[in-house]
Design a protein that fits this description.
This protein has helices spanning 6-17, 20-26, 38-59, 61-65, 83-96, 112-115, 125-132, 147-161, 173-176, 185-200, 216-220, 230-252, 269-279, 292-322, 348-352, 354-378, 441-461, 481-500, 549-567, and strands at 105-109, 166-170, 204-208, 262-267, 331-343, 382-385, 389-392, 406-417, 420-421, 469-473, 505-511, 532-535, 538-544. With 576 residues, the protein is of the alpha/beta class. The strands form three sheets. Strands 1-2-3-4-5-8-10-11 form an eight-stranded parallel barrel, surrounded by six helices. A two-stranded antiparallel ribbon has the order 6-7.
Length: 576
C-alpha cells in the first residue's frame, strides 16, 4: 500500500479524464533534464482539476484536504534535547497531563514470521509464496535471530539491559492451527509461556493475531476475500486469547486482574490487502485478480472480522470471570499504518500539476485510510473511487465502539508529483528502505490524524473523550549508527511534542528489537531496523547498537523516574 499508487492513479485519471498522454509527459524522474511543455502542463492541470472537482463533489472536502496539513507541524528548535534531558521534559509533560498514563510504555515490536525459523512452505502462506517466487526464507542462515527458541533470553535482555517495559509479538496462525480446525497444543502452550513470562518480567505485552501471514489452508479457501471465512479468524483469535488468559490466571492468581494486556487483531490490514490482492507482492497473488475491488473487499471483510473478534473476546472474558478465572478485561484494537502523501512543491510544474496531484493523493488516502476511518465513525465501510472501485458494507452498529485503543505504525511521508512518488535524493534523509525517508515531524502529524479520525470519534461513541494511542511501529532501516542516532533523537522529540500537546499517546514501540527478516523482494538490499544486533555464533545474545543508545538512554531514565514515582505511591492506572 505504501509505494505504488502510480498504477492506480494513472488508471483512475485515464478512465475519468482521458489524460494519459499528459500524465506520461508530466512526471519525469528527478534525473531527467527535459521538462514537459508549458501547454502540456496547462492541459494536465485542467484535466486534473476536472477529475478533482468530480471526486470532491462525491467525497467532500474533508476527505481530500484532511491529509494535507502543514508539513512543518511545529517549529523545529535549533537544539533538540535528547537522552536524559528529554526524559525529564517527557516525564514532566506526562505528569502535567490530565489523567496521565503512568507508566508510559517504551518497547519494541516483533513478528513471529520475521523473527523465528518455524514458518515453512507446507503450512504458512507467505513462506509458500516466497518459495514459489524464489525469495529468501527466514530459515536462511543469513538470519540469526530466533525468537521462538530464545524468547526468554530476549525478554531478559529487553527488560534488564535495555529497560524496555513493553513488547509486541505476533501469534503465527499457521503454527497454532496448521490444519483447519486442528489446534496445536504445544504451540498454544509456547505462546502462553511467552505471554506470562513477559508479564512476570515487568513487560506489558501487546499480542498481535495477524502480521501479514495466514495458514495455507485459510488462503486456499479464499481467505478474507470471502465473508464466510470470517468465523475461522474469530475462532483462532478467541481460542488463543482464552488459552493465554487461563495461563496467566494459573501463574498469577487473583493478581491477574490488575495486569493490563493489549490485543491487536491486525498489523496494517490495508498493507496486507493491497500487497496480496492488488500488487501481487505477497500471497495469494491470485492470477487475473488485480482489481481494486478485490483489495477493498478483503479490507472490508477484515474490518468486519475485527468487530466480530472484539465482541467474541469480550464475551469470553465475561465467561472466564464466571468460571472464577480472574483476568483484566482485554484491551483490543488494531495497528493502523499511516503514510502521508504530500504534493511536491519545488518547481513550477509541481504547482501547475497540483489539481492532478491532489486527485491522485486523494485516491491513495481513500484506499489506505479514509474507508477505515469511516467504518469506525459511521458503522459503514465504503471504498469509493469514481469509475474504479465501489465497495460498501451493510451498516454495523457495533463498529463505532469496537476499539479500546488504536495502534499507529508510522515511518515517513512521500512526496508526489501527479501519480509519481519522488525518490529521496538527500543522503541525510534517505534510508535503506526506498519506501521511506527520514521525516520526524510526520510522526506528530500522524498522531494528530489518528486522534482526530479514530481516537476521538470512537471515544465519543464509547462516552469517553478519546481512546488511547500507542505508537506500535517506528524505526529506520540503516547500517549507519550516526543516522540511527539522529533518527531516534528527532523522532523522540516529535513524540514528546505530541505528548506535551495533550494527545492521548500512552506508548511507543520501535521497530524492531533486533535485526530480522524484512519482507524480501528481488533486487532489494537487506534492511537493518534492529535496536540490537544478533550474535551469529550465539543467537541468544543481543547487543545494543551504538546508534540506538540515544533512544535507550531516554528509556532508561524514564524507567527510573516512573519506578521512583510508583514507589512513592503516586502511580496512576491507565486512563482512556
Amino acid at each position: 500500500m505504501h509505494t505504488q499508487f502510480r498504477s492506480i492513479c494513472l488508471s483512475a485519471l485515464v478512465i475519468l479524464t482521458g489524460m494519459a498522454p499528459a500524465l506520461s509527459a508530466a512526471a519525469p524522474t528527478p534525473s531527467t533534464k527535459s521538462k514537459p511543455a508549458f501547454g502540456t502542463q496547462a492541459i494536465q492541470a485542467i484535466q486534473g482539476a476536472a477529475f478533482f472537482s468530480s471526486f470532491l463533489a462525491q467525497e467532500g472536502a474533508r476527505t481530500l484536504f484532511a491529509p494535507y496539513a502543514k508539513q512543518t507541524a511545529f517549529e523545529w528548535p535549533e537544539y533538540v534535547p535528547a537522552g536524559e534531558q528529554l526524559a525529564y521534559d517527557f516525564f514532566t509533560a506526562l505528569m502535567t497531563r490530565h489523567k496521565a498514563h503512568i507508566p508510559f510504555l517504551f518497547g519494541a515490536s516483533t513478528s513471529e514470521h520475521q523473527n523465528s525459523k518455524q514458518c515453512t512452505p507446507g503450512i504458512c502462506s507467505w513462506s509458500r509464496w516466497a518459495q514459489d517466487n524464489n525469495l529468501i526464507q527466514p530459515t536462511h542462515n543469513l538470519y540469526s535471530i530466533d525468537l521462538w527458541t530464545h524468547y526468554r533470553a530476549y525478554i531478559d535482555h529487553a527488560r534488564d539491559e535495555l529497560h524496555l517495559n513493553s513488547l509486541r509479538f505476533s501469534i503465527e496462525w499457521a503454527l497454532v492451527e496448521p490444519k483447519e480446525g486442528v489446534f496445536d497444543q504445544q504451540a498454544l502452550d509456547h505462546y502462553a509461556d511467552l505471554f506470562v513470562y513477559a508479564i512476570q518480567k515487568g513487560i506489558t505485552p501487546i499480542v498481535c493475531f495477524h502480521h501479514y501471514t495466514d495458514p495455507c489452508w485459510f488462503i486456499d479457501q479464499g481467505g478474507f476475500e470471502r465473508k464466510k471465512n470470517i468465523p475461522y479468524f474469530v475462532r483462532f483469535c478467541n481460542t488463543v486469547y482464552a488459552h493465554l488468559a487461563r495461563a496467566l490466571h494459573q501463574k498469577c492468581g487473583s493478581h491477574a486482574r490488575t495486569i493490563t494486556h493489549y490485543w491487536a487483531t491486525y498489523n496494517s490490514p490495508e498493507g496486507y490487502a493491497f500487497k496480496g490482492y492488488y500488487l501481487k507482492q505477497g500471497p495469494p497473488s491470485t492470477p487475473n485478480k488485480n482489481s481494486l475491488s478485490y483489495f477493498a473487499q478483503v479490507l472490508m471483510h477484515m474490518m468486519e472480522a475485527h468487530v466480530a473478534v472484539y465482541s467474541a473476546m469480550k464475551i469470553t472474558h465475561q465467561q472466564l470471570l464466571q468460571e472464577h478465572i480472574t483476568t483484566a478485561e482485554p484491551q483490543i484494537g488494531f495497528l493502523k499504518n499511516i503514510l502521508q502523501l504530500d504534493p511536491a512543491l519545488k518547481t513550477l510544474g509541481h504547482y501547475l500539476a497540483l489539481p492532478a496531484t491532489w486527485a491522485c493523493n486523494s485516491i491513495g488516502n481513500m484506499l489506505q485510510s479514509e474507508c477505515i476511518y469511516q467504518f469506525f465513525e459511521t458503522g459503514t465501510f465504503k471504498a469509493y473511487v469514481p469509475g474504479l472501485v465501489n465497495v460498501r458494507s451493510a451498516y454495523n452498529p457495533h463498529a463505532k465502539t469496537a476499539l479500546d485503543f488504536i495502534g499507529l505504525n508510522y515511518y515517513s511521508n512521500r512526496y508526489q508529483h501527479v501519480a509519481k512518488s519522488l525518490p529521496e535524493i538527500d543522503a541525510n534523509q534517505a534510508t535503506d528502505n526506498d519506501n521511506y525517508r527520514i521525516y520526524p515531524q510526520g510522526l506528530y502529524r500522524a498522531i494528530g490524524e489518528i486522534y482526530a479520525r479514530m481516537s476521538r470519534p470512537v471515544g465519543k461513541a464509547k462516552s469517553l473523550g478519546h481512546i488511547p494511542i500507542i505508537v506500535t511501529e517506528n524505526g529506520v532501516a540503516t547500517d549507519s549508527d550516526a543516522k540511527r542516532a539522529t533518527f531516534y533523537r528527532d523522532y523522540m522529540y516529535s513524540l514528546f511534542k505530541a505528548v506535551e500537546q495533550g494527545y492521548p499517546v500512552i506508548g511507543y514501540l520501535t521497530w524492531t528489537l533486533a535485526d530480522n527478516y524484512e519482507w524480501p523482494s528481488k533486487g532489494k538490499k537487506r534492511r537493518l531496523y534492529g535496536l540490537c544486533s544478533v550474535d551469529p555464533h550465539d543467537p541468544a545474545k543481543l547487543t545494543a547498537k551504538p546508534g540506538a543508545l540515544i533512544y535507550l538512554e531516554l528509556v532508561r531514565k524514564m524507567d527510573e523516574l516512573q519506578q521512583l514515582l510508583a514507589t512513592r505511591g503516586f502511580a496512576q492506572k491507565s486512563a482512556s
